[in-house]
Design goal:
alpha/beta, nine-stranded mixed beta sheet, seven-stranded mixed beta sheet, Rossmann fold, GMP Synthetase, Chain A, domain 3, 28% helix
């Protein structure tokens, strides 16, 4: 197919608005289309193709089997547990192939799903249950002690086979579901404060899936196999990856959690073509080439990263270990259905450290933190994305939280992301850090994520975290904790010297870059104790 896409986001200097270079998406014309309807719209073309793969039992579920299992579980949920349209149900479970089946079964009968981190404490879970008021909890046996005190009926996915037996010789009358009906409430800390319920409709989830896969469609990408290692309780795992790829007919290998060798074995065994994940996984791959080389990963054509900025150096390291694989990253948030921008590796430069160009239909501005005026390319400010013109993409509201909704979305429809970033001249967006995590050093604002990226570019550093350290003169000084590779003898002084030599140093306000001597402190040349402070772990 001819490449008619441009790599450039369009910048309007008059309005300060950036727009997407990609063609707009087309939503289903029928208003009465649920995410499950849309999922199986082309079933006849791939009914016998694998949809979900369990890498532990090696069980494979085809698309036709997936549809049947969704129907069977929907019958049980309706008849045995009296779940109907608009009832809220909590899925509290680690990743498994049964998680998406439960999600689709619930949404097929019009129920509203909320999901929670299986690592939550009882108190953390209580906040979400109090806010969302579920009628039923779907969980697994090992998590039962956390939910048995809420006086709610519980479905144990460990008894899935026995549950499905109850569906025999029964049917369910599916309610009419509008694209504008609520499908899921995902809890997010948002731009600030306690976790809040992000309300997403069937329409917004369908739109997200089309935005995520727009480049795959444009270039006619064939059927693929995706390895899922990010959690399904997160928008990335549930919607951005799993739903988006299943609706396109692709297979998902579902891991309970990321374990390097098991992930590599799954790539080898199932000829995985795509791994979409978060920066810690990419770092693990980049830092352990000796482990990677034990497995055949030649099928892997793309590694995608999201959820936090991924440094250019790590991308370069990873691409050397996977020479046939394109390494890219995207940017999104729960409030936008998990997607705002993504790299198109077929056009433009690779491994720029950017999060690509805006997805179809997206508009954005970079806003000066103090003046609230839009900024041109290469100027650092808060990222705002437009919501009212393309309302189908975004959350409708924070659940039962009008005040938080109004704080996040202004009257003109701009969603204030709380993220610090900038666009370059070619329309690529660079996400620097969260505004609330900036370190205030002598009136300047230092982004911890950029320092962390520099630290992890050192071959002996596996992981890094930078936090503020209170200082009477400077206000705050960056303090770093680093995890060394096994056997490393690297010292804190050597790490500081490494940072001091870097030409590519973190940005500060107004788009200026820090000089090396500023990053390590004004006293570095005098032999006095510089900063950042380092703790080796």
């Amino acid at each position: 197919m001819a490449d008619s896409q441009t790599s450039l986001s369009v910048y309007n200097s008059g309005t300060g608005i950036y727009t997407s270079p990609r063609p707009p998406i087309s939503l289903p014309p029928s208003p009465a289309t649920s995410i499950v309807d849309f999922l199986f719209r082309n079933l006849r073309t791939h009914s016998d193709s694998p949809a979900l793969i369990d890498p532990y039992s090696h069980k494979l579920i085809t698309f036709s089997q997936l549809k049947q299992q969704i129907s069977d579980l929907a019958i049980v949920l309706h008849h045995t547990f009296n779940i109907s349209k608009n009832d809220v149900v909590l899925i509290f479970s680690p990743n498994s192939v049964l998680f998406p089946i439960a999600f689709f079964a619930l949404t097929s009968i019009g129920a509203i799903v909320t999901v929670a981190n299986p690592l939550y404490t009882v108190n953390e879970l209580a906040h979400q249950i109090s806010d969302s008021k579920p009628k039923l909890i779907i969980t697994v046996n090992e998590l039962y002690p956390k939910v048995n005190g809420f006086n709610l009926p519980v479905v144990d996915l460990n008894n899935y086979s026995d549950l499905i037996e109850k569906s025999r010789h029964k049917t369910v009358t599916y309610p009419s579901i509008s694209q504008n009906d609520v499908a899921v409430i995902l809890y997010s800390s948002g731009t600030t404060g306690l976790s809040k319920g992000v309300v997403l409709t069937h329409r917004s989830i369908i739109a997200t899936s089309l935005m995520v896969t727009a480049d795959q469609e444009f270039y006619g990408e064939g059927r693929s196999v995706f390895l899922l290692v990010v959690p399904l309780f997160h928008v990335m795992g549930l919607i951005t990856f799993t739903y988006s790829q299943l609706q396109r007919g692709n297979a998902m290998v579902v891991m309970a959690r990321f374990e390097l060798e098991k992930a590599l074995d799954a790539i080898d065994r199932y000829r995985v073509t795509h791994l979409y994940t978060a920066p810690p996984v990419v770092v693990a791959l980049a830092k352990q080439p000796e482990v990677v080389r034990r497995y055949d990963t030649s099928s892997l054509i793309e590694i995608g990263s999201g959820a936090a900025p991924l440094g250019k150096d790590v991308m370069d390291e990873c691409s050397k270990i996977f020479p046939q694989t394109k390494v890219l990253q995207g940017y999104g948030m729960t409030e936008t259905g998990g997607i705002i921008s993504v790299e198109n590796t077929r056009v433009g430069s690779r491994h720029s450290g950017s999060s690509g160009t805006l997805c179809p239909g997206m508009e954005a501005q970079i806003i000066h933190i103090e003046t609230l005026k839009p900024l041109p390319p290469n100027q650092l400010g808060e990222i705002w994305v437009l919501i009212n013109k393309y309302v189908y993409i975004f959350l409708t509201e924070y659940f039962h939280n009008k005040e938080a909704t109004e704080e996040t979305i202004d009257k003109q429809g701009w969603l204030h992301t709380g993220d610090l970033g900038y666009f370059d001249e070619e329309g690529r967006i660079y996400v620097v850090d969260r505004l609330k995590e900036l370190i205030k050093y002598k009136g300047y604002q230092v982004a911890p994520a950029e320092l962390e990226g520099l630290l992890m570019s050192h071959p002996e550093i596996m992981d890094a975290a930078v936090i503020p350290y209170t200082d009477e003169e400077a206000n705050e000084i960056p303090m770093a904790y680093v995890v060394l590779k096994t056997g490393s003898t690297l010292t804190g002084k050597e790490v500081q010297e490494f940072i001091a030599k870097q030409e590519r140093c973190p940005r500060r306000g107004e788009g200026h870059r820090w000089r090396g001597e500023e990053v390590v402190g004004e006293n570095w040349r005098d032999g006095k104790e510089p900063f950042p402070f380092f703790f080796l772990i």
